[in-house]
Request: fold
Amino acid sequence: MPNVASSASADTSAGTTGEPLVRMTGVNKHFGDLHVLREINLEVRRGEVVVVIGPSGSGKSTLCRTINRLETIDDGTILIDGKELPAEGKALARLRADVGMVFQSFNLFAHKSVLQNVTLGPIRVRGKSSAQAKERAMELLKRVGVDNQAAKLPAQLSGGQQQRVAIARALAMDPKVMLFDEPTSALDPEMINEVLDTMVSLAKQGMTMIVVTHEMGFARRAADRVVFMADGQIVEQDTPEEFFSHPKSDRAKDFLGKILNH
Amino acid sequence: MSSYFADFASLFEQFDVFQAFWVNIQLTFFAAIGSMLLGTVLALMRVSPIASMRWLGAGYVNIIRNTPLTIILVFLVLGVWSQLQINLSSDFNQNFFRYAVIGLAIYHAAFVCEAIRSGVNTVPVGQAEAARAIGLGFLPSARLIIFPQALRGAITPLGNTLIALTKNTTVAAAASVTEISALMKSMIEFRPDVIIAVFLTVAIGFVLIVVPVGLLTTWASRKFAVVR
Reply:
């Protein structure tokens, strides 16, 4: 049984070395006149959990979305598992299947049940039988704690439950890396922790994760590295302990001062 | 007064009003299916990632939507049938009926396309992003995720198009189809004594056909609304 939990946890220690899983080199992007990504160089190793933080408008969501080409880039290269991101067509679709994505607004398929949301990709993209896909989906829904909601429509669930289903949907594709684009920003405060707990356990099981978030607690608990962005650039990056206690740049000091002191 | 009613009643013996309305209903039925199929393909083209496809779809819609239906039907009959001698059926009446269905379908497909496209706009962009993010290509995500939701959002404008189509079947008279408006012309010519009743009969007939369509679409748009 190819289980993310068992297969990934085995190579946690070994996995953080070797060829990077995601490698961005000299990436630039403009929205009109706005230079949203400036010369981004970023490597994420297998099994590593990278948290991207920064003020709004710093380009962190855009950075996350370029990795599965929901946003195109103007120049530079993005390699995933050693292969360059294809421009379009079947090759791009195949790559996206290997990159799990969790959105701020959940984006569960509104006309499909929770279970169908999770089985759709494995059946249509991976070609699994519906029985196989269903079994695996129930296992994942159980892991994120919403297996008793499987028959419901997304709109019948709370935000926190929806986001956990979205995580299960992404995991069902057995992705090499998971991208989280502000996964808790649209949630009511009391639901944030249930989603963060799911993410922390995923991180502990050795999943490679790139997480854009404002949750500093999550960064402290689960991140191997914190990447701080401002004005489209990566300003500094370090372990969470180092970054939060000894930020080097003025931008980071200013940012941390604003969010941690109240 | 009673003699007026007797005259009016004799109208139905002289002319087969119900048969004529039945032709309109048949025209509506087949043209609705045709325009729905063609309109869906056009809508797919208009939201496709391929620029030339979008251009073709937009070109079709803008040309056909801005051409009078009468011109399209007369062109089919005089241009395609009479000039190019293309027969769609060996039966004379059936031939014109089929041309009328094709003309109506071609014309209303442009409106169906725009109705579906407005439905696509009701689907949040995140749905398409999520579909792409799990590795679905353009056609699978359109078929499995976007269009099922778009069609539900398009029920009301599609209903309006269907109502317009139902009434526009009267233009098929221009393609020599003996439907109700062609029959009405004969009735006016031969029975000027009950001319008001003739108009009322045709008008009420259409109201009776169209009102259920409106009720049905209102009910369906509530019933199948996507809850978000």
Remarks:
- Residues 78 and 85 of chain A are 6 Å apart (CA to CA).
